[in-house]
Amino acid sequence: MNKKIVLGVIALFVAFVLTMAYIANLNGPWRGQVIDAETKKPIEGAAVVAVWNKEFASPAGPGAYFLDADEAVTDKDGKFNIPARRYLSIPLFRYVKGPYFTIYKPGYGSFPSHQISPTYISDNIFGPENTVVELPKAIGYFDRKKSMYDAEPSNMVPHDATPKLNKAIEDERKRLHM
Fold this sequence. Notes:
Radius of gyration: 21 Å
CATH superfamily: Carboxypeptidase-like, regulatory domain
Helix content: 10-25%
Strand content: 25-35%
Shape: elongated
Order of helices and strands: HEEEEEEEEHH
Number of strands: 8
Distance between the termini: 72 Å
Number of helices: 3
CATH architecture: Sandwich
Structural class: alpha+beta
Largest sheet: 3 strands, mixed
Strand order of the largest sheet: 5-2-8
CATH topology: Immunoglobulin-like
């Protein structure tokens, strides 16, 4: 009898978890355009990075770990497109957060730290419609260095997950003789 009760409890738990699990439709695609804040001309060749994390609750407190990243490079019109993503998410245990965006072009301020517009940052700043991001030119050594450091991914993001951004940062390091 105890074995049947244990199996019943396990079956109920599994059924509960499966009903709570869902494919996280994280919307997308995410599109945008990057322009020079002063001239309003498109910025070609900017690295655009989208990062997703899995966040979780534990007895020790909340935590997060890297799930995925995607990159694009802006075209001659300054436009980029990051395709839609879907992930399995179990809200009670782990859930997907993101994408978190970084935009970087050597010689310019980076997004989300230095942009002129948009003047706000939200979870859904980019969507199927083009959001225009205005980046100011980074003037001088220290401004360029700060913008470069601000664009570097967090320690959670593996180095090989962002090769386009890494190349842009490495190119700027060389220009700045670092």
